[in-house]
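#struct-help
A.M.: can someone run this one for me? Single chain, 208 residues.
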Amino acid sequence: MKRLGVIAAICVGFFGNTWVQAGAAPDIVGNAEAGQAKSALCAACHGADGNSVNPQWPSLAGLGADYIAQQLAYFKSQQRNNAIMYPIAMTLSPQDMADIGAYYGSQKNTGLEADPSTWKQGEHLYRAGNQERGIPACMACHGPLGAGNEPAKWPALRGQHAEYVVTQLTAYASGERVSPSNAIMPTIAKRLTPDEMKQLASYVQGLR
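D.P.: on it. Structure tokens below:
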């Protein structure tokens, strides 16, 4: 438990308050009902209830209301580059982002199955990390069951498509995806092998 506390403290130091630094107002309260009405365009890729059926597109259900709003702000400011999301985010106000986040954050991730040939290796990395290589346990920030940490805006990983997770880890490792005002995910991703990324992704896909 002491080791987990140290890892969590390191994660906090890396992350900081990125939501404020993205230019979005942290005191805006999202309305899930309003967000549902505003999410019609999102549903085409992410599913009406936030459970995506395409493994290339993330499930948003239960991902974290503030995290979703934060990422929309990053897309709009191009701190996170995505040719599909940028024009969509450009049309959204901070209130729209908060509402959409509240809606998808209130939905339940229906869950997926892990690849039986790889999830065991991924479980070890997720729960214990690799101290010798400076890889912290993923659960220190994302929780033992992958539920994330809403106040810290660390996303839920449970039931997320493995293909999407691998894509994001690869993007972090290459520098294609940058986490504004923190370095924890790019740093960790660079220390993972391609096989380890697949193993971790398989494990979180099957988390409940």
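A.M.: thanks! Residues 1-24 have pLDDT under 50 and may be disordered.
D.P.: also worth noting: Residues 32 and 103 are 4 Å apart (CA to CA).
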